[in-house]
From TrEMBL:
Binding site for NADP(+): 62-63, 89, 154-158, 187
Described function: Catalyzes the NADPH-dependent reduction of beta-ketoacyl-ACP substrates to beta-hydroxyacyl-ACP products, the first reductive step in the elongation cycle of fatty acid biosynthesis.
Catalytic reaction(s) noted: a (3R)-hydroxyacyl-[ACP] + NADP(+) = a 3-oxoacyl-[ACP] + NADPH + H(+)
Keyword S-adenosyl-L-methionine: no
GO MF terms held by the record: 3-oxoacyl-[acyl-carrier-protein] reductase (NADPH) activity; NAD binding
Protein name: 3-oxoacyl-[acyl-carrier-protein] reductase
Provenance organism: Aneurinibacillus migulanus (Bacillus migulanus)
Amino acid sequence: MEFEKQSALITGGASGLGRKAAQLFCERGAHVIIADVNKEQGLQTVTELRENGGKADFVQVNVADESSVQTLIEEIRQKIGRLDVLINNAGITRDSMLHKMGKEKWDQVIAINLTGVYVCTKAAIPLMLENGYGRIINTSSVVGLYGNIGQTNYAAAKAGVIGLTKTWAKELGAKGITVNAVAPGFIHTPMLDAVPEKILEMMRQKVPVLRLGEAEDIARAYVFLASPQSSYINGAVLSVDGGLTL
Ligand code: CAA
């Protein structure tokens, strides 16, 4: 129960990586708050977590919308009184070759995957500072490190996430808050539904461990970086990709 008496805010926690993370944090004693735009899935996830003995709440939030994120943090302050862990995990893809990528697809991905991380972290910091303690984990991607055909918008956002992770690690380290990023490879989640089978097979062949990742592979990395024991890891980008990028 390494997160007993701690609270963990997980954006995009209704499904995919975030949902698995919510489960692992609940099992380890955290009070989990799932912030997600998808109400139906969010409520269903929270119901399941509670049925398994977890402490969990759902709040419907668009991470790019400053005022609703601010309201969410106020609610956490009033109902729980502290925020120990923030996992900026919410993300979307709108893949397209550059020559076909309309600005709308660029704007959507930058808003959720990059601006959302800025908005949520800026709003959460004052509450973390009240206790002089915090663990912030940002979800980047192998695509942010190395690029990917068809993902101009996503690669730009995920590379941006690495830049802000390192900046915040420098700004906040002295205040008891560490900031790290996880860079997942290709992981079995609903996000992969949009990827053609031919491309997935190509990725599978490239991974030295000969499989795509599972949500739990990433959720375990979140737990590791969020734990009180990782206090000397700050500004790191942890690749969890089965060696895809070697
Ligand atoms: N590597 C190598 N070749 C690729 C490629 C890739 N990643 N992606 C596309 N291509 C190739 C295609 O095979 C095709 O080649 P041929 O002309 O020789 O057949 C060519 O590029 C054009 O591709 P499409 O015919 O598919 O073009 P399209 O305009 O219909 O679709 C696309 C373009 C939407 C980008 C589509 O190719 C696609 O969905 N690609 C996959 C994009 C991807 O990898 N997304 C990752 C999502 S998961 C994620 O983002 C999580 C994470 O953090 C990793």
